[in-house]
User: Fold this.
Amino acid sequence: MPPAPLAVSLGDPAGIGPELLCRAWLARDEQRLMPFFVVGGAKVLAAAAKACGLDVPINPITEPADAATVFAGGLPVLGALDAEYRPGQPDTSGAKLALHSLQRASDLAASGVAAGVVTAPVSKARLVEVGFAHPGQTEYMAAVCERPVEDAVMMLAGPQLRTVPVTVHCALLQVPALLTAALIEHRTRIVAAALREDFGLENPRIAVAALNPHAGEEGAFGDEESTIIQPALDALTAAEIDVTGPHPADALFAPRARQNYDAAICMYHDQALIPLKALDFDAGVNVTLGLPIVRTSPDHGTAFDIAGKGIADAGATIAALKMAGEIATRRAAS
Assistant:
């Protein structure tokens, strides 16, 4: 039996999410996408399609399982909650819709009714205004699954690179204090397991970036490499995980270096996201590892400035849907 359809959260209705979901539905056959449905926002989606000149019929459904039946004829939408479509003008009603959509889509994935959840871009600032109490959607997924936040590992994956930040949504000043050998080891173990089980890599190779310039230059620029990162590497090597480092981050993402690993573990948010977005911005996927549910998201934001203008690239949204379908299928077959 094929997996159940994917649940998709609408994202902020004032952003580019709705139009990109419409474009993804139009590419369903060419990209061989698994059937998916959007939670809420039928009116928003129809208006976004019209604004961008897209012919996308909206098919309301009452049960997630109905998505597979109607997917070929229109974009399935579950639920009646909606908002006005005001591209580039985020407001409270839109944030409430985005939060409801995220919560329902995640719950459907957690209950197994959906094969996974794909989350469209949200404005964290707007969500906080309507009661969202998490640093980001990755941390929210951990809460949905009732898992420690350390278990929810953010991987940014594109055609040319996979990166994982050990510390995520925090000030750069806080990073050295948050880094521990135990945290690096824990998250790297999750990455190694996911590369095998979700991505089908039999013997994954993992490179670990240094925190400081020149990997600390033997202590001249900091000692975190020897006191924190190296002990984690020693423990991982003892566990027969193919890991190398700490590598100076300024050379780790060069073309020749990327041939030597399947994923790079980075010490902080921008160390991981800058190279991924520089190389794979229009095809980058944020995938959450370490949880019992499948969750992916396009690795870009709401882009309020171009919403509704028909110029946003749907590549990352399509890639997120495709990756979620592939992981769900692999898990169902295991």
